[in-house]
Each structure stands twice: as structure tokens, then as C-alpha cells.
Amino acid sequence: SEALVLEHKQNLTFEGRFRQRRKSLKLSQAVLAKELGVTQAYLSMIEGGKITEAQLSSDLRESIYKWIEQI
Length: 71
Known about the structure:
Elements: H1 2-11, H2 14-24, H3 29-36, H4 40-47, H5 58-69
Helix pairs in contact: 3-4
């Protein structure tokens, strides 16, 4: 159900929401990294939780928030 999907999304971590959004759009890490202006390796570290949300620059964090919320 829609409510269950919403509840699941709310329980995901920042990196989980980021990864899920990328995969739902069938984008490779390399393509998305280029779009966001970072390397694929850096994007991989974000998705893997090695670089936390708090460690991102405010500009990159804002770009990722906007990208995650796009419909």
C-alpha cells in the first residue's frame, strides 16, 4: 500500500534514500556523480555511509536533498 511505502521511505537513512532514488531512476553512480559535480568514488562513499550527511558541503548537501525530492 502507499502508506507502507511512505513509512518505509521515512525509515531509510540519508544514504539509503539517496541510493534508492538513484537506483529507481536506473542511473549509474558515474552518471549521477557527474551531474552532482563529484567523482564516482566520492558518491560511492556517500552511499556507503563512509561520508556522512553532516560531512558534506552545504552546497552539495542541498543539491542532494533537492535531487532526492524531485518527482
